[in-house]
Amino acid sequence: MGAKRALIVDDSLSARTFLSRILEKYEIEVDTVESAEQAIEYLTSNRPDVIFMDHLMPGMDGFQAVQAIKSNPQTATIPIMMYTSQEGELYLGQARALGAVGVLPKQIKPADVSKVLYQLHLVPDRRTSEQTTFRPVGVEDSGEPQTAAARPLTEASLREQFAELRRAMMATLDSQSERFVADMRAMLLEALPPPPPAEPEPPARPWGWIAASGVALLLAIASAAMWWRELNLRRSVEAELVQARAAAEQAAPPDAAPVATSAAEAAEGNEAAPEPAAGESGAMQPIIAPVPYGADPLSGDRLETIRQLLTRLAEEGRAGVVEVRTFAGRFCLVGNANEGFSLAPDETPYARCDVVGNPHDEGLLPAQRIPLAFANLAGDFRSRTQGALDVRVEVGDADSILEAYPPITEHLTAGEWNRAARANNRVEIRVR
Fold it and tell me: Whose CA, among 156, 193, 362, 405, lies 20 to 30 Å from 351?
């Protein structure tokens, strides 16, 4: 037959310890928990032979725990013995009505526990009529008093009872001390005046974020106004510059006007360049080749024109420097820096231009302005003429234009503006 097991449910450590020692004396294994909730969880996987349940505990009290255990068919047959400091038949009736087998006083005595264990048949009843006197095993009954043999057993029993009594007294003192301290603490808390109510903090005023939002709005408005003013100023300055250049060219004397050939004459590379007139410094008239927007100035037809010129000069035995100057026209463009720019449609109003300039030319580095084919051509003729002919590439002055840009008005279109930009986007070739 296996050992019996008991479950003690009490929030007091000293009470659990005291009752555990009494039960262990009867060779009963003991499990303890400190709340009714833990007891119910314990019963999901364990089946003790008896439960000792305290009444007053934090959370679920003893009555509620008994009702929950008895309402569960799996645990309803477990006997429950309650113990409490309350007295009276009313309390005993309530406990038994809920399913408890009985009620013990809070100050449990070993005799009360042993009586309960006998009633629940958890320990054999030693109080039988078969053994009314103590008889040592192995000693014949000669009718003489057995005082000498019984003395060691009596002393051992007394020592054991004294030790058990001492443990019971210590546990009782611990339990009483805990309750006394708890009662004193409660009395002191009741005697102290209640703390003054904390003053409610004034609600935070949302002035901070309102002010920050206002400042941000003002900055945005100011930035937009400055950008619009700068855009209008830039456009007005550009218009004034174009008008000033046109007026200067019209006021210049006829002999000061630059001599230029048409785009058709520049494309005809097989025509011989005119000989320098008498009394001149020997410089040829410049060859002007237009450059479409986005094209490489030193490639295509411009490169072929320079090749024909160098060939003719080398055959004639001429020496000198061929200067190639690139001029960028200022186009009316639409687009952005990420996706690129393109010529605006001719009917687009000038005010709708996203950029007025030449981003393709402005974005080229000095090394990128000279393509490989042009560099090979210049090196070939430099080597063929033993340095007599040299080719030099320069970026022309942006203020030098062949056709004046139209005045900026509200009716100006991108087509009118880009017509002048195409004429000014060119390459000029001179022989020095």
Answer: 362
Residue whose C-alpha is closest to residue 71's, from 38, 101, 107, 98: 98
* Helix H or strand E encompassing 379: helix 372-384
Cβ contact 402:328 at 8 Å: no
Polymer length of the chain? 432
The helix/strand/coil state of 180 is helix
Sign of CA dihedral 52, 56, 57, 59: positive
Domains delineated in the chain: 1-126 (3.40.50.2300), 228-251+258-273+282-431 (3.30.1330)
* Residue 389 to residues 262, 306, 311, Cα–Cα distance (Å): 26, 12, 10
**pLDDT at residue 37, rounded to an integer:** 95
Tens-digit pLDDT profile for residues 190-241: 777 776 776 666 665 666 678 778 888 888 887 777 777 766 666 665 666 6
Between 163 and 358, name the one with better pLDDT: 358
How would you label 296-312 residue by residue, b for 16+ Cβ within 10 Å and e otherwise? bbbeebbbebbbebbee
Report the range of poorest mean pLDDT among 37-41, 92-96, 354-358. Answer: 92-96
Express each pLDDT in 362-390 by its tens digit: 777 666 778 888 888 888 988 888 888 88
What does the DSSP assignment read for 48-60? -SEEEEES--SSS
H helix or E strand, kind and range, residue 244: helix 207-251
* Higher-confidence position of 299 and 87: 299
The SS3 call for residue 163 is: helix
**181, 189, 428: which is closest to 327 by C-alpha?**
428
Question: Looking at residue 261, what is its pLDDT?
Answer: 43
Burial (0-12, 13-18, 19+ Cβ within 10 Å), 65: buried
CB 7 within 8 A of CB 44: no
> In DSSP terms, which residues pair with 54 in a beta bridge?
83
* Cβ–Cβ < 8 Å for 267, 301: yes
Place of tokens 């005697």: 191
Q: pTM for the whole thing?
A: 0.37
Cβ-based neighbours of 122, under 8 Å, separated by 6 or more: 4, 6, 26, 28, 49, 50
